[in-house]
Amino acid sequence: MNQLLQDVESVLAAADYRVFVPRSETPAAYFEDESVLGVVYVLQTVAELQQSWEQLQDMFLRENGSLFSDAPTKAWNCYSVFLTRDSADGVDRSKLNAIEEDFRGTRKIVGVGVTTPEDAEAVLAPLLPLRHLHLSSTDNLLQDLRKRLGPEGSPIHGLLLDLDLGTVASQLMESS
Fold first, then answer.
1. What is the pLDDT of residues 56-104, one digit of tens each?
2. 32 and 69 in one domain?
3. For an engineered disulfide with 158, which of 21, 22, 110, 163 has Cβ 3.0 to 4.6 Å away?
4. Are 43 and 49 in contact (CB under 8 A)?
């Protein structure tokens, strides 16, 4: 579990957050930048996450209430993040989604099955700056794009095949 907390610290620090690891029974990391503050808790199991998220959030809010009076604009951007390496079945996922949709106190992010630094980064993505992704290979780019744009022969595929714009326009008019 310490490795997951270290991964979280690295991801947040790379995004220019100030990160502090408090002494706590539950492994945690506080984070803050100019406009956001919050806490990440690392829990053993999905069941523990479901049982303790509210208590952990409330404890964080009580212990750090002065931060909100010192920086009231950050109170609107306060996050509680709950992570576990444990995985969840379909029933658990609906309960986990309900946690994220509970906006009382803080905004919530829940991550299950978080085992790698890449997993941690994916879960923390809503807190991270946008990045431009570079494609490692363009060999299959056109093929991948065609798959995503719908059925073969659709007007949009005509744009990819360098058809005459008049033909593409006619196809679009016929399909609407």
1. 999 999 998 877 777 777 778 899 999 999 998 777 788 999 999 999 9
2. yes
3. 163
4. yes
Residues 27 and 100 in one domain: yes
CA distance 169 to 176: 11
> Looking at the whole model, is its pTM more than 0.90?
no
Tokens 């016929």 identify what position? 174
Question: pLDDT digits over 97-137, tens only?
Answer: 999 999 999 999 999 999 999 999 999 999 999 876 555 55
108: nearest Cα among 71, 72, 76, 82: 82
As beta bridge partners, residue 28 has: 41
* 47 in a structural domain: yes
Whether residue 111 sits in one domain with residue 83? yes
Measured distance CA(147)–CA(2) in Å, rounded = 41
Domain that holds residue 89: 2-127
For 31, list phi and psi in degrees, rounded to 5: -140, 155
